[in-house]
Structure formats: structure tokens, C-alpha cells
Amino acid sequence: MATPHIDAAHGAFAEICLMPGDPLRAKFIADSYLEQVECVTSVRNMFGFTGYYQGRRVSVMGSGMGIPSSAIYYHELMAYYGVETIIRVGTCGATLGAVNLNDIIFAQGACTDSTFNRNRFGGLDYAAIANFELLQIATARAAEYTSQFHVGNIFTTDRFYDADPNLNTLFERYRLLGVDMESAGLYSIAAEHGKRALSILTVSDHLIRGEHASAEQRQVGYQTMLKIALDTCLEL
Ligand code: HPA
């Protein structure tokens, strides 16, 4: 039952799928945290894997960067592969002074400059929100590992480069925590299919302070985030 972008067999995906942007990070997560790992799809090298985390069947797949790429995979997994829950495990740039490099952000909602949701929502402004149950479980797990986490609104942008620097001031004024490129699309797709989604992000850059986490620093925050995401899977 291949779809245009996924060549996995029917039933090859677990009901829960963790999704980083980078397909090689998906491979790293599968190799590091899952047992009995199988590579279930590799179209365009967008690798997807299924295995077991402490006995729970879990998949992990890359999404690519930005709503246009990631929405293809979110849609095909939810519409055709029986995926009920997607947890995005990504990075973001921070836009609030109270947020620091390597902090973990739970995107309760996602504003956007993308027309993706507006086009699908009759020209109106769609409030893209995380699934409440997932958010509750994940934040409870987070509190066991770290105090360096935040829950709130983020901004999903179509543009990594040439962003208007005044926007960061605007985001700060409205208490947005950070900027990614996928969450607003993920949330509307999950809602449309009656499924659950949550974006958990580690802060790789600080857009107000012009700071960048080193590769080593990033690894620490990222691993805490993965533990939170995987422990959340055990409760679903
Ligand atoms: N912009 C958008 N997405 C991001 C950024 C950023 O600065 N950093 C990490 N993901």
C-alpha cells in the first residue's frame, strides 16, 4: 500500500510516530533508543523506522524542513498508515528573553506566516493547537527530568533566511517562545484527521541574543527531549 512518498507495507508503522526534521536523526533515534528496529520506508531517503521502546511499538520518521515537505508525511502517515499520534521532536530559535539555549519548548499553539492553514480553512485564521492530553502527559514527564522547559505559543515560519528582524520584537511582545518551520501545519493536519499531535522543540539558537548552541550543547537538550517524548509514548 505505498503512497506517493512512503513505500512501507500496510501496518508497518506504529500508532505513535516521533518525527524529527532530519531523516538521519530519525535513524539515530531508532538505533539509539529502539529495539528490534526495522527500516520501513526510504523514498527520497526520508527514512522511517519501527521498533520497540520498553515494549511499546513506536515509529520514527524524518519530515524534512518546512510545512510543504513535512505536511506530505504528516498527511500520508495519518490518512493512510494508521498513525494516531505524531510527536514532532525538533529544534527552534528562541524569541523570548526568559528562554535559554537548550531549553525545551512545548508548542501549545503555533502562529504562522504560512498560507497553508488559511488556504485549507476557508480563508480564515486557524488556531493551530497541540493535543491537550499529549501536552499534559509530556509536560508532567518533563518536570521529572528538568526545570528548563516552557509551554506556550510559537511561530511557524516559511522563511529561515531574510526574516524581518522587527518580527522578533513583535514575537517578544506577544510572548511567543520561539520559531520553527513545521508545527502549525502539523496541528491542523492532525485536527483534520481526528488525530493527536504535539511539537516538542529544543532551543538551538537565540534570535534575540544572537546565540547559537554548539553541536555538543545541542545533544544534551535533544536527548532530554527524546526521553520525554519516548516516556510520553509509554502512557498512550
Ligand atoms: N528559524 C526557523 N526555524 C528554526 C530556527 C530559526 O531561527 N532555528 C531552528 N529552527
Automatic annotation (TrEMBL):
UniProt keyword Signal present: no
Binding site for phosphate: G21, R25, R44, R88, V89, G90, T91
Recorded GO MF terms: purine-nucleoside phosphorylase activity; uridine phosphorylase activity
Keyword Transferase assigned: yes
Domain Nucleoside phosphorylase: residue ranges: 16-217
SUPFAM superfamilies: Purine and uridine phosphorylases
CDD domains listed in its UniProt record: PNP_EcPNPI-like (cd09006)
EC annotation from Swiss-Prot or TrEMBL: 2.4.2.1
InterPro entries membership: DeoD-type, Nucleoside_phosphorylase_CS, Nucleoside_phosphorylase_d, Nucleoside_phosphorylase_sf
Annotated catalytic residues: D205
Short name of one Pfam family: PNP_UDP_1
Keywords: Glycosyltransferase, Transferase
Site note Important for catalytic activity, residues: R218
Family: Belongs to the PNP/UDP phosphorylase family.
Binding-site residues, a purine D-ribonucleoside: H5, D180, M181, E182, S204, D205
The protein's name: Purine nucleoside phosphorylase DeoD-type
